[in-house]
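Practice problem: LOW protein: ammonium transporter 1-like protein
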Amino acid sequence: MKTTMASPSLSKFCSLTPTLSQHHTQSFPSTASLRFPHTTTSTNFNTIFLHKQPLSLCFALTESNSPNSTEPDPKTLLQQIADSFDLPPDYFGKFPNDLRLDLNDAAFDLSNGPVLDECGKELGETLLNLSRAWEIADTSSSRSLVAKLPLMEANLTGTAKSALGRRLVSAGKRFQSMRQYGQGETQKIAKAMIAAGRALSASSTSAVIDKQPKEKNKTLKFGALQVEITPTKANIGAAIAFVFGILTWEIAQGIQNTPESSLQYANDNALMLAKSLRGTLLVVFYGSTLLSALTSGGLVLLGIQLKSEKN
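Answer key — structure tokens:
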């Protein structure tokens, strides 16, 4: 009776596992020669099934360690930027006016703010020199300065890498806005700079840096001159505008209080010219007074806004 109970189970098990290795099938030479109860067959089935599981686990672990899951090397990406600046001679010098403005904006984004404090002396000076080369459209100097970036990558701290990454992404977007020009060199530069910048910003230390409060100061740019706006500077500017408004008001009042009868000239043409000049001066000084008042009020409000943002 025990044999008849074990045989159907064992036959069903053999039909369900045709793909087992020859080693396992040889352990069941004949269903008639077995004298094991049904529970023993179940135990052997579980043993064989569990023996097969580590094979799939090892395969999954091997796939997870594949080289495709590695992150891109920042040094390699910086080298791609250097390669993208292998441009024809005087490439930047031939830019039209609109692209020259974009190039100046890229220079501003690359060196804006406390670049020496954020990136260190060596990298900061390199970025400043590169920014000046872009402002004067010096292609040769740009190529030699960009070639230094891959060599500096190994010595950069986490803060410097994060700062360099943000600046490269911002400047790269300026090149991206130039669209297609020439043989598409500007788009190659933009792609390389943005990729390298994002890789540097996504480094392991950048997560700690991003948690720190970032103080962004407003900056005005007048050509090569950059003026950082602070609440103190805004209040000083408001005071200067207020004093200038008082002076222009006093001058306008002095001109207006001068009676026309006191104007004595040799002929009528000279008298008419003097009256016309008097009216022009009144318009200029009263207009200056109004602009000074508006500027003073605007700077006071700007100082209050900057102070509140800082707090």
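Discussion: Residues 268-310 form the longest helix (43 residues). Students who identified this feature from the tokens alone can consider the problem solved.
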